[in-house]
Every structure is written in C-alpha cells, then in structure tokens.
Design brief:
295 residues, mainly alpha, 12 helices, single chain
Length: 295
C-alpha cells in the first residue's frame, strides 16, 4: 500500500471513528466482566469471521483469502500475527474485567515508543536524540510502577509488546489489512469454537444462558471487526505521521473511562507515571513532525 501524499477529510473521519470506537470499547467489555476473559476472546474471534467475511464479499476480495490459504508462507506468517493479536485481546479483556483499565491505557500509550525501539533493534533504524529521550521517559514510567508493586506492570508491558510485535510482523504479511484480519480470525476460529463447545458441554459457558449474554457475546464480532476495518480504510487516506499522533486518542479515552466511569484508583505511582508517558509522547510527536518537515 502506497503512502498517501496528504490527509483527506474522509480519511481523518475514518481514523477518528476507529479511535473513538476503540476508546469506548471498555464500556462494552465491562458489561461482559462476569464472563471469563478467554470465553469473551473466543467469541470475539468466532463472530469476527462473518462480519469481516461480509465486508470482503461486498468488496469482492474474497479471492485474496483463497490465494493466501494456498501459500504455506502466508499462512505461517498469519499464524504468528493471529497468536499475537489473540494474546493482546486476552490481556485487554482481562484488564477491563479486573478493574485495571488504567494499566491497559498505559500499555497503549507506551506502544508507539516500543515500536520505535523495535524498529531500532530489529530493523536497524537509527534513533534521533528526541526519540531516545522519549523512550527514556517511558522506561522511567515503567520503573516507577515497578517500584510501587515490586513487579513489572505486566498488563501494560504485554499490551505494548504484543501489539508492537504484531504491527511489525504485519508488515511482512503480503495481504491487505481487511483480508489479513479475516485470515487471522479464520486461523484462530477452530480453537475458539472447540473451547466454546467444551464450555457449553461442561455447563460453565455463558453463551445461550440469557438473551443479554448471547447478544453481548455475538456483538463482540462487530465491536472487534468494525473499528479495524474502518482503520484500514483510514490508513489509505491519511499519512502515517498523522495516524501516529492520532493513535493517542484511544488510550486517552480509555484513561478517562477508567477514572471517571469505572472509578479506578489513581495511585501515587500512576500520578508520576502517566505524566512521564504524556511528556514522552509530546517529545515523540515533536520528533515525528520534525522528520515530516525535513521530508
């Protein structure tokens, strides 16, 4: 996919819609907090398949999926990205259900800085001074939280790590974003279906127990697939530098929802850690806009 030369109004609208949907996602997941995180993720996978499949049918791009399935290399790469996104979803759902959405917000704040670090380590890209300072602030924030609880903030680190590696791995997947998402969901769906069936046979699953539970679990496919599909369209019409700055919208909304709606406790360490992260992101944004201006 070629990089767009400028930002279109339609593209900005798509990007805003995707990030706002992701920002409000904790409210939906909170309604499923009585359901185990693994069962929720299984339904996210299962019900994403028909939603994403319907989109590809409308776009008349289903042939790309069958072509990809005939390529062992593409399937192998998709298995890697599928496992990464599955772990990311599982951690996120668990964080919201256990009143740790603030840690989820921190993880998604750290993500762009972790992606820069990965690019330097794996791709050999050189970091400028501002980028190094920004990464230093992020490390300091993690260190503060680690000192408070005596262990790494594993939810934040896992979310940043899995999404960062997922995004990096996705670059090597020779298939469009919508097709790639459907392929990942299809590869994960057999395990998800078996898990849901086992829960049902044991009488401990929540699907089909009440109309509310069934509707919420089926709706997981819509709230999972729709933002990703909208984002894929936005990426075609908005520059990467713009997307990189706009991605702070979602964790900011998650932060506000956690504090104002879920009433999660803001500990002294978080009072220090979040401003450190926000400062890091301001520095990162300045570095990004300078690079864009130089280009």
């Amino acid at each position: 996919m070629s990089q767009p030369s400028g930002d279109t109004l339609r593209g900005l609208g798509f990007a805003l819609a995707a990030y706002f949907l992701w920002g409000f996602l904790p409210l939906y997941m909170k309604m499923l907090s009585h359901v185990g995180a693994a069962e929720v993720v299984a339904h996210r996978i299962i019900w994403s398949v028909p939603v994403a499949g319907a989109v590809l049918l409308y776009m008349r791009r289903t042939g790309d999926i069958w072509t990809a399935l005939r390529s062992p290399r593409v399937v192998s790469l998709a298995c890697v990205t599928a496992v990464l996104i599955g772990f990311n979803w599982l951690t996120y759902v668990y964080a919201v259900a256990t009143d740790r959405a603030l840690e989820a917000a921190l993880g998604y704040y750290i993500n762009p800085l972790f992606s820069i670090f990965l690019s330097a380590v794996i791709l050999g890209e050189r970091l400028n001074r501002l980028q190094m300072v920004a990464i230093g602030f992020a490390i300091a924030a993690v260190a503060v939280l680690t000192a408070e609880v005596g262990a790494l903030p594993w939810i934040s680190v896992t979310l940043a790590g899995t999404w960062g590696i997922y995004a990096l791995s996705k670059r090597t997947l020779p298939i469009g974003p919508n097709q790639g998402f459907l392929l990942e969901a299809m590869l994960l769906s057999p395990a998800a279906l078996i898990y849901v069936m086992v829960l049902g046979q044991q009488g401990v699953g929540f699907f089909a127990t009440t109309s509310a539970n069934t509707a919420l679990l089926m709706g997981c496919g819509v709230v999972t697939a729709v933002p990703l599909i909208i984002y894929a369209h936005a990426a075609k019409m908005v520059r990467l530098s713009t997307i990189a700055v706009m991605q702070y919208i979602a964790p900011t909304m998650i932060f506000l929802v956690a504090v104002l709606v879920f009433k999660e406790e803001v500990t002294p360490a978080k009072v220090i850690a979040f401003p450190l992260i926000w400062a890091a992101l301001v520095i990162y944004s300045i570095a990004l806009w300078r690079q864009r201006g130089a280009a």
